[in-house]
Structure prediction request, 700 residues.
Amino acid sequence: MRKLFFAAIVTSAAVISCKMENPLLTGSNLPYGAPQFDKIKTEHFLPAFRQGITEGKAEIDAIVANPEAPDFANTIEALERSGQTLTRVSSIFYNLLEADTSDELQAIAEEISPLMTEYQMYVSLNEGLFAKVKAVYGKRDSLGLEQDQMRLLEKTYKGFERSGANLSPENKAVYSKLEEELSLTQLQFSKNSLAATNAFKLNITDETDLEGLPQYVIDMAAATAKENGQEGWTFDLSAPSYSPFMKFSSRRELREKMWTAYNSKAVGGEYDNTQLCRRIADLRIQIAGILGYRTYADFVTEDRMVKGSDNVYAFLEKLMTPSLPAARKEVAEVLEFARCQGFEDEVIQPWDFSYWSERLRNERYDLSDEQLKPYFQLENCIDAVFGLATKLYGLRFEERPDIPGYHKDVHVYDVKDENGRHMALFYADFFPRPSKRSGAWMTVFRDQSIDEAGVENRPFVSIVTNFSKPTEDSPSLLTHDELTTFLHEFGHALHGMLAEGRYASITGTNVDHDFVELPSQIMENWGYEKDYLKPFAWHYQTGEEIPDELVDRIIEAKNYQAAYFQLRQLQFGYLDMAWHTLTSLPEEEAVEFEAKVYAQSNVVPKPEGTSMSTTFSHIFTGGYAAGYYSYKWAEVLEADAYSLFAQKGIFNREVSESFRKEILSRGSSDDEAVLYRNFRGHDPEPEALLEKLGIVAGRN
Prediction:
């Protein structure tokens, strides 16, 4: 006993020394306990992970060893609050891995992946722990639990079941190995995707090859070339560079080159993901099988709002049936317009579509990104997005330069309500860089919760985008699409900021994936409201307010090619389900498998050797496996939900307070379908979205 006691003292001393030196392990001296990004270094992560795992296991062991009869407090709440050091460290690390990665961080990710998987298995496959959880669950109806407590208990128990707790010892060992390999394979997939994206550069030195490109695109390309030590103008595969090039470049052969590079990322070559797609799918097939499910999609969707993969297909089909002929009609209109302008091909190729579509849109509505961008200076958009949160929810945003971000481009804001209560820290990271993956997303460094002492931890919320950077001649100017992206991600942020609850695992955005997009997608609607746009959309050079007729054209063009863009999202949903309803690997390779899935719904050709799957991070690494349909599912929810704002006023505080009370603040404290009905009074129908998009006529 004395020897063990001495060892414990030595270990404790080592831990104390480690914590003193490691800002990931010490208490933060920053306001609200914000992450000490100014002190955190790469070498801090690995020891912090190891310490977090050690502490987490000790906390689990303490729950199991507790001689008292298992109850909600000593088992369920204790489990909920275990592993907080590891949660804090991993939240910071994995967010940096996406937003500001490096070779060193990627190497650490590979090293800690098996450690994290082993820890997760230590918890989820712990027989002693599960026995205690099961005992509490078995007497749940006699415990007098409140709604959020019952919800936490049910989710905890089902989480164990769905993580293999009922497996035999032999199958638990197999399951652990499958999960470990899946984690490592996903890391490699992400690494390849980023590397493949960064590997391509189109450098133009002949000024005539810039024909058709707006000046802001040219200026941005010149800045990129300068950053890369090149002459002329450089275009890459980041959204602010790729998208306008495809819309505006008159050089068809260069558009084809860019399109092919973008759509063949990680297909073969040094950063090939084709076999990783198959391996991830195969591992998920095996995981589903060992857990007793026919397919991985059946496993995933069992406890979502949609309740089953068959229902996902039925939902997608209900939208696809009217959307496909409408999309074909829209593509035919673009082809007809192009041929009137001298285009000679019989079909329109995918590298032609954005170009001719933009020209038709400009002619039909006299509207283009070049016209709109001067009115959407980023700084004004920030004020307007914050201002919308003020009008709807009474929130105030104060920039805090004294609180460090993880990169020089990151701005930090203190968010307070109208009574001065601190609600959140908000981190905003807007511009692309080689260390950041493409796209836009919201995340958290800390979820909202209340600890065992009754002290509330308010959340640290972040949005990450890839908007156009300022140039030497102009500030950052957004397209209207980028403004709606900003609103979208900010909707997720509000879901995190306005969270109210005791338990982090069911607060904020910790909800079903087919519900989580509702708060984000509903926010996009304000981007098409004149009363919202007019007060902030001023020309950055002249100070002129955006003209009424220009806003009218934005609204008029809202549903331009809505069926085509809906079809693309539905295709992604079908592709996701195709990969995750497999019961065995197909004979076809990844590229051919994808082509087969798309064959019946393509409205423009899909050239051989191109693939979405190989960089489809949402479904292969990003948590949307068998869940991509949820974007459309949430659009149905938001179309119905926003109609209440449209009816009662887009800034109506009664409606917004109800949305806050029933949706934004509740997390997953009740079934998401119940939360929606509490707000809207009824269940939504897909027809609401089809009517909103103008794909079917409105009901009388």
Observations:
- Residues 309-340 form the longest helix (32 residues).
- Confidence is low (pLDDT under 50) at residues 1-19.
